[in-house]
C-alpha cells in the first residue's frame, strides 16, 4: 500500500462517518436494552459487538491506516464524556491501544478478528465502570429508600457473582468473535464484490 | 442567528463545570442545583423547545425518584439504578446538548480560532451531515424492503440475520459512497490547503459570556461547599 | 484558457480513460462535452479540476495548460482557486446544513480573513438570489436551489474557470431552467465554462461549441446551429438526448371500457395541515403506460407510494380489479421503484436480486435469463448490483418488477440523469412490460420518455 502512513481527506471523512455509525448503533442498542436489567447488564454488550463487528471490519479494511481503532475508541470515549461518564474516555483510549498494537504490523483478517474480540471483552467497561463509579451513591440511596438487601443484591448479582461475571465475559467474547466472522463473510460476499475494498 | 446564544468557549466551560460537579459531589440528590443552573442557561439562550423536552424528562425522573425514595416504588422495567444515574447526569446532558447543538459553523469557527488542523474540522462538519443524510437513507431502505415484502413479521422472525444484512449492507455501501462524494467535494474546494482555516462566523466574547462563565464557576464552588466533596 | 495537448489518461483501477485529447477552450467560452455515459466526459472534467490524477490515480501523459501555465507540478489545493467544480448530486456534497456555512466553505478552507469571507459569501448569496432561503436548512431545498447553492459556493472563490460534471443529473425541469440562467450569468461575467452533459437542449443558448466524445476520444465539434440541423435518427445513433426542447405533452386521461386494474376513488392526501392533493378519481387498465406529471411538490411520489401501499392516504379508497384493496394487498400487486436506486438492492448479485422473494423454478430461471438479455444486463448476471451504472440499476429494478409477477408497476423518474441510449432502453423495457399485460405508471419530467412510450397521462398540477 503506498502512502501507508499519511491520512488523506478521504480517510478522515470515511473514518468519521463509519465511527459515527458505529457509535449511533452502540448507543441505540444500549438505550433499548436498558429497559430490562438482565438484557442490559448481561446481553447488551454482546449484542452490540455482534452487530458492530461487520461495520468495524469494513471501516478498518477500507481505510487501511494505523490508528483507525484508536481514533474510533477515543471518539466513543468522548461521546461518553459528553454524557457525564468522563471515566470512560481514558478507559476507551486504553481499550484502543491493544487493538492498535495487534494491527500495527499490517491488517490481516486474523489480526482484525483478534483485535475485535479483545475489544469486545474490554468493552464491558461501558457497563461495569458506571456501576462501580456510582455504586456507593446508589447503595446509600437504595438503603435510604428502604430496599431490602436481597433486592439490591439481586440487582447487582450479575457483576458480583463469579458465575455471572464469567458468563458475561464469555458471552461478549463469543459475540465479538461471531461478529468478526460475520464481518469477514460480509466482506467477501458483498464489499469485495462491490468493488469498494 | 440567535443573538442570545452564548459563545462556544462558555458552553465548553459550562460542560466542564457540570462534569466536575456531578463526578465529585458527595450529595447526589443535590445535583438538581446544577440542573437548575443548566436550565437557566437554556432559558437565557431562549432555547424553549429544548428546555421543554428536557424539562419534562427531568420532572419525570424526579417524580420516579421521589416515589422510589418515599413510597417504595419498585421498577419493573428500567431499573432504579438508571433512574438515579440519569437524574444525576442530567446537568451534563443539558449543557453538553446545548454545546453540540450549536450551529456547526460556530463550532468550526471556535476550533479554527485555536488553530485546529483542517481535517479535524472537516471531520466535525461531517458528523453533523451524518444525521440528516442517514435519516433519508434509512427511510429509503425501509420503503424498498417493504416493497420487496421483506418487512413482514414472519420474514423478520424467521430470518433475523438476513434482515439485518439487508439493512446493514445497503447502508454501509451508501455510507462509503457518501464518504467518497464528500471527499471529492472537499478536495475540489481546497480542503488540503495548508495553514489555518478561516471562518465565516466570528463571535467576540460578550458581557453575557463572561457573566455565565462566572456564574458556572461560582455555582460549582457553591455547590461543593453546600454538598461537600467525596 | 484551458488547453489540452495530446493528453492521455488511464485510470489505475480500470480500463477506462481518454486518449490523444487536443482541445482548446478560449477565455469566456462555453464548451459542452457531450456523448454517451462512461465514454470519458467526466475524465476530462477531472483532468481540468485536478482530481485526476491526484485523487483518481492513473497514468497521465501530455500537457494541460490552464490560464497559460502547465499546472501538473502544483499541489491540488491550488487548482481550486482557478478552477471551480460543480458536481452531479449537490445534496450529497454539502458540508454544512446551513446556507452561509456552505457557501463560505471554500473561502474558509483557503484561510481567508474573516471580513473577506463574509463579504464574498454575502455577495455570492445575493448574486444567486438565495437570500430568502438563507435561514432554511439545506436539506429541505428543492434540487434547483441546492445546485444554485453549490454554484454560489464556487462563485465565492471567484475562479476564472468553472467545470460542471453533469450538473442536471439530479435536477427537475424548474431546476434546469434555474441552472441555465445561472450559467448564462457566469458567461456574461466573462467566466470560462466547461460542461460535461448529455442533456443538451437546455444548453443551446449557452454553449458556443459542442464536443462529442466517444470511446475516450474527441470525435467531432459542432456549433449549436449545426447541432440543430442534425436529424433525429443521427441523434439516436449518437445516443444523445434531443436538441430541441420537447413540447410538454398533453396526453389524455385513460378512458377504456371494461373493469380497470387499478382505480382511485376520491383519494386525498394531507401531510400535517397541508393538502397535497384531494379528490383524485383515476383509473388504469392493463397494457397502459401512464405518465404521472406535475410540478415540484405536486405529490407525484406520494401518490405512487400510496398506490404501492407504502404510505397511507388520508381519505378515499383504492381498488384493484374492482375490489377495494388495503395497503398490504396493494403491496402484493404493486411494484414501486424509487428514483434513488442506491437503496433498492439487497443481495450480492444481479441474479440473486431478481429472485429475492421469488421461488426459483426452471421456468422462472428461463424467464429471468431472457429478461436480462432483453434489458442488456446478461453480461452482469453475477456482478454485484452496486457496481452497475445508473441506467443499469434502473433496468435491473424494472426487471425485478417484471419478474415479481405484480400487475402494477410504478417507477419514479427512471430516466433522470440518463443519456439518450439508456433512456431509449428504459422506454422499450416499459413497453415490454405493458405488452405483458401490466399497468405501468411512470412519474417523470422527461418529455422524451413520455413521447417515446407513454400512452396516457395523469397530470397532478391541475
Question: Mind explaining what this structure looks like?
Answer:
The complex is a heterotrimer of chains A (197), B (230) and C (462). Chain A is built from eight helices and no strands. Chain A has 197 residues and is mainly alpha-helical. The mean pLDDT of chain B is 88. Chain B has nine helices and no strands. Chain B is mainly α and 230 residues long. In chain B, helix 1 packs parallel to helix 9 (207-227) and helix 2 runs antiparallel to helix 9. By secondary structure, chain C is of the alpha/beta class. Chain C contains 17 helices and 19 strands. Chain C has helices at 41-49, 51-54, 76-82, 99-103, 105-109, 114-127, 143-155, 173-188, 224-228, 232-237, 300-307, 327-333, 350-354, 362-374, 390-403, 420-435, 447-453, and strands spanning 2-11, 17-25, 30-34, 58-66, 69-70, 83-86, 161-165, 192-196, 209-214, 217-222, 262-271, 274-284, 289-293, 315-320, 323-324, 334-337, 408-412, 439-443, 456-459. In chain C, the strands form four sheets. A six-stranded mixed beta sheet of chain C has the order 6-7-8-3-9-10, sandwiched between helices. Chain C has a five-stranded parallel beta sheet with strand order 16-17-18-13-19, with helices on both faces. In chain C, strands 2-1-4-5 form a four-stranded antiparallel beta sheet, covered by helices on one side. Chain C starts with a strand and ends with a strand. Chains B and C meet through helix 5, helix 6 and helix 8 of B and helix 3, helix 5, helix 6 and strand 16 of C.
Amino acid at each position: 500500500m503506498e502512502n501507508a502512513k499519511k491520512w488523506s481527506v478521504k480517510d478522515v471523512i470515511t473514518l468519521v462517518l463509519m465511527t459515527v455509525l458505529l457509535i449511533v448503533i452502540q448507543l441505540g442498542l444500549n438505550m433499548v436494552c436498558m429497559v430490562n436489567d438482565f438484557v442490559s447488564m448481561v446481553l447488551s454488550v454482546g449484542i452490540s459487538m455482534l452487530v458492530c463487528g461487520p461495520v468495524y471490519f469494513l471501516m478498518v479494511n477500507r481505510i487501511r491506516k494505523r490508528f483507525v481503532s484508536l481514533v474510533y475508541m477515543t471518539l466513543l470515549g468522548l461521546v461518553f464524556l459528553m454524557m457525564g461518564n468522563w471515566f470512560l474516555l481514558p478507559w476507551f483510549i486504553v481499550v484502543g491501544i491493544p487493538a492498535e498494537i495487534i494491527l500495527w504490523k499490517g491488517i490481516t483478517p486474523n489480526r482484525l478478528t483478534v483485535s475485535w474480540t479483545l475489544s469486545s471483552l474490554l468493552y464491558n467497561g461501558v457497563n461495569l465502570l458506571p456501576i462501580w463509579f456510582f455504586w456507593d451513591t446508589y447503595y446509600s440511596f437504595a438503603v435510604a429508600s428502604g430496599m431490602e438487601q436481597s433486592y439490591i443484591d439481586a440487582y447487582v448479582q450479575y457483576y458480583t457473582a463469579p458465575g455471572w461475571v464469567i458468563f458475561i465475559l464469555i458471552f461478549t467474547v463469543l459475540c465479538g468473535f461471531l461478529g468478526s466472522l460475520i464481518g469477514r463473510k460480509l466482506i467477501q460476499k458483498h464489499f469485495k464484490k462491490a468493488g469498494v475494498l | 442567528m440567535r443573538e442570545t446564544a452564548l459563545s462556544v468557549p462558555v458552553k465548553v466551560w459550562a460542560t466542564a463545570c457540570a462534569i466536575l460537579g456531578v463526578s465529585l459531589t458527595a450529595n447526589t440528590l443535590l445535583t438538581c442545583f446544577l440542573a437548575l443552573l443548566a436550565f437557566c442557561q437554556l432559558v437565557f439562550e431562549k432555547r424553549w423547545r429544548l428546555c421543554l423536552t428536557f424539562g419534562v424528562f427531568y420532572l419525570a425522573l424526579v417524580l420516579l425518584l421521589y416515589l422510589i425514595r418515599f413510597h417504595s416504588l419498585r421498577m419493573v422495567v428500567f431499573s432504579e439504578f438508571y433512574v438515579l444515574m440519569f437524574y444525576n447526569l442530567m446537568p451534563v446532558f443539558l449543557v453538553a446538548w446545548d454545546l453540540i447543538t450549536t450551529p456547526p459553523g460556530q463550532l468550526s469557527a471556535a476550533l479554527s480560532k485555536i488553530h485546529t488542523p483542517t481535517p479535524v474540522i472537516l471531520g466535525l462538519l461531517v458528523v453533523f451531515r451524518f444525521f440528516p443524510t442517514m435519516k433519508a437513507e434509512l427511510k429509503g431502505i425501509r420503503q424498498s424492503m417493504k416493497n420487496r415484502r421483506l418487512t413482514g413479521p414472519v420474514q423478520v422472525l424467521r430470518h433475523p440475520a438476513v434482515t439485518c444484512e439487508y439493512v446493514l449492507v445497503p447502508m454501509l455501501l451508501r455510507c462509503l459512497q457518501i464518504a467518497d462524494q464528500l471527499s471529492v467535494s472537499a478536495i475540489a474546494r481546497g480542503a488540503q490547503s495548508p495553514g489555518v482555516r478561516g471562518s465565516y462566523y466570528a463571535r467576540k466574547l460578550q458581557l453575557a459570556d463572561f457573566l455565565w462563565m462566572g456564574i458556572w464557576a461560582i455555582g460549582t464552588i457553591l455547590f461543593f461547599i453546600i454538598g461537600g466533596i467525596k | 484558457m484551458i488547453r489540452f495537448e495530446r493528453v492521455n489518461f488511464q485510470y489505475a483501477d480500470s480500463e477506462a480513460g481518454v486518449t490523444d485529447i487536443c482541445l482548446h477552450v478560449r477565455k469566456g467560452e462555453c464548451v459542452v462535452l457531450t456523448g454517451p455515459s462512461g465514454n470519458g466526459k467526466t475524465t476530462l472534467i477531472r483532468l481540468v479540476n485536478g482530481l485526476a490524477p491526484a485523487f483518481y490515480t492513473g497514468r497521465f501523459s501530455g500537457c494541460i495548460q490552464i490560464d497559460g501555465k502547465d499546472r501538473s507540478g502544483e499541489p491540488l489545493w491550488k487548482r481550486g482557486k482557478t478552477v471551480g467544480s460543480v458536481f452531479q448530486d449537490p445534496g450529497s456534497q454539502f458540508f454544512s446544513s446551513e446556507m452561509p456555512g456552505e457557501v463560505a466553505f471554500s473561502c474558509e478552507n483557503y484561510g481567508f480573513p474573516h471580513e473577506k469571507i463574509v463579504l464574498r459569501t454575502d455577495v455570492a448569496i445575493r448574486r444567486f438570489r438565495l437570500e430568502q432561503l438563507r435561514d432554511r436548512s439545506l436539506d429541505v431545498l428543492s434540487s434547483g436551489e441546492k445546485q444554485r447553492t453549490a454554484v454560489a459556493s464556487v462563485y465565492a472563490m471567484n475562479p476564472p474557470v468553472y467545470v460542471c460534471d453533469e450538473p442536471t443529473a439530479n435536477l427537475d425541469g424548474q431546476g434546469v431552467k434555474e441552472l441555465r440562467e445561472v450559467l448564462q450569468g457566469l458567461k456574461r461575467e466573462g467566466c470560462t465554462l466547461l460542461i460535461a452533459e448529455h442533456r443538451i437542449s437546455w444548453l443551446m443558448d449557452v454553449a458556443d461549441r459542442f464536443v462529442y466524445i466517444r470511446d475516450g476520444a474527441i470525435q467531432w465539434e459542432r456549433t449549436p446551429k449545426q447541432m440543430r440541423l442534425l436529424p433525429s435518427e443521427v441523434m439516436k445513433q449518437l445516443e444523445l438526448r434531443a436538441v430541441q426542447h420537447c413540447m410538454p405533452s398533453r396526453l389524455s386521461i385513460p378512458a377504456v371500457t371494461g373493469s380497470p386494474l387499478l382505480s382511485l376513488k376520491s383519494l386525498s392526501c394531507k401531510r400535517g395541515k397541508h393538502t397535497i392533493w384531494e379528490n383524485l378519481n383515476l383509473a388504469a387498465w392493463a397494457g397502459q403506460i401512464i405518465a404521472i406529471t406535475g410540478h415540484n411538490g405536486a405529490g407525484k411520489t406520494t401518490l405512487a407510494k400510496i398506490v404501492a401501499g407504502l404510505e397511507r392516504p388520508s381519505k378515499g379508497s383504492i381498488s384493484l380489479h374492482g375490489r377495494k384493496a388495503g395497503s398490504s394487498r396493494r403491496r402484493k400487486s404493486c411494484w414501486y421503484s424509487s428514483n434513488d436506486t442506491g437503496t433498492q438492492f439487497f443481495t450480492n448479485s444481479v441474479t440473486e436480486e431478481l429472485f429475492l422473494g421469488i421461488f426459483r423454478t426452471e421456468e422462472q430461471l428461463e424467464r429471468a435469463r431472457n429478461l436480462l438479455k432483453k434489458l442488456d444486463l446478461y453480461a452482469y448476471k453475477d456482478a454485484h448490483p452496486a457496481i452497475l451504472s445508473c441506467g443499469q440499476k434502473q433496468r435491473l429494478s424494472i426487471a425485478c418488477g417484471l419478474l415479481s409477477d405484480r400487475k402494477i408497476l410504478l417507477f419514479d423518474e427512471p430516466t433522470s440523469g440518463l443519456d439518450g441510449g439508456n433512456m431509449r432502453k428504459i422506454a422499450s423495457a416499459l413497453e415490454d412490460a405493458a405488452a405483458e399485460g401490466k399497468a405501468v405508471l411512470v412519474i417523470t419530467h422527461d418529455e422524451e420518455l413520455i413521447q417515446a412510450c407513454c400512452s396516457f397521462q395523469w397530470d397532478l398540477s391541475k
